[in-house]
Amino acid sequence: MTLPENFLWGGATAANQVEGGVLEGGRGLSNIDLLPVGSDRAAIASGQLEHLQWDEKHYYPAREAIDMYHHYKEDIKLFAEMGFKVYRMSISWTRIFPNGDDAVPNQAGLDFYREIFEELRKYNIEPLVTLAHFDVPVSLIKRYGGWRSRRLVEAYVRYAETVMTAFKGLVRYWLTFNEINILIHSPFVGGGLIFKEGDSKKQLIYQAAHHQLVASSLVTKLAHAVDPDNKIGCMLAGGMHYPYACRPEDYKQAIDSDRENYFFIDVQARGYYPNYAKKMFEREGIALAMEDDDLEHLKETVDFVSFSYYSSRTVSGFEEDYETTTGNLFRSIKNPHLQSTEWGWQIDPLGLRNALNQLYDRYQKPLFIVENGLGAKDKPDREGYVADDYRIDYMRQHILAFKDAVAIDGVDLLGYTSWGCIDLIAASTGQMSKRYGFIYVDKDDEGKGSLKRTKKKSFDWYKKVIASNGEEL
């Protein structure tokens, strides 16, 4: 058998993309609740347009999402039917502390997640919990400017200690920040940053990054103190960069782009700022405000490295090559050797194997693929059934790729959680029509639908994959 017997198969979601119930049970407002569908979404996400309350002009998909807040037992039962060994999810910070730093935690929020974890344990499903999945309390943004402020370190550590203590024995696998490198590309989403006239954007982004990295290291140490059985990881938006041609300038750009991407994980997995980052700070005039013990704190490194992988990226050393771009938040060039999804994400299964090798060579720590999947426009029949052979084919190829990374290349891989195991609102666009799941949810891009759950063809396929530990594809 290619994969170890204890390989963790499962699926992944985020609270803001599935839960809904945004102001129910005492929950407060989070940055991600305020991202509307439509033309303003990008400006708000990038921190260029301040938007800290709902209005009547926009539709906010996170308010209801797929209403897992009221459907979680039904959904977990379906995950169990597929045979999940692990379910990656996130805790909503504002469900625990509505304002981010309240004097006491919200008991209704703690009770809600306890019920979820106990339900998962009932089916022997291991929770893998992200503490902050694009999640910054709006109150902390209004008062302190989000992660630009050192005050968020203390608030985040207290939040983490509260949930780790409350759920000791129920949760053993933790991630500190989801796709932490997205802070560079989408600063409001990643850090609650809103830029004002005269702000030095890069200075603020990397100052916020420093605060998150310190917070992550403090929580990594805390996790082991709360429960020695805890395993804590970091998480990046993965996907290595290919040079557009064999020109030395293109290869140099690929190295530079990879470094920008891996900067956060270099610190979290190695315990110090790399020299290339220090030199970049010098060139850019970035002066990080640090406290005396910060560099010592950073030495507390993660137990494993997790990442999302949807596609590789292609870059050039020449500006004129960027006329055609593709992908999500990352600037890239269309790779002529690869096919693309309906949203322009390029399909590259071998790129997953390449990324696994690059990460394992770089860090020598166990790896975990915590997001991978195909966003597509599913067309259900009258009964709601979707024959999603295209999704099965995409996932089959990527599973074969990571099996090769384990069996041939010797990569230490803990598990695989496919993204959006149940249809959810897409982080990039807020659309429901960009579907990833094995389970179809009856809801459209305008928020209309019955929310009925229906198994797709991929549901039974993935069930066989898990039962055979990846041998039956």
TrEMBL record:
Pfam families: Glyco_hydro_1. GO terms for biological process: carbohydrate catabolic process. The keyword Hydrolase applies. InterPro entries: GH, GH_1_N_CS, Glyco_hydro_1, Glyco_hydro_1_AS. It comes from the Bacteria. GO terms for molecular function: 6-phospho-beta-glucosidase activity. GO terms for cellular component: cytosol. The active site is at 371 (nucleophile). Coiled coil: none annotated. Its EC number is 3.2.1.86. This is 6-phospho-beta-glucosidase.
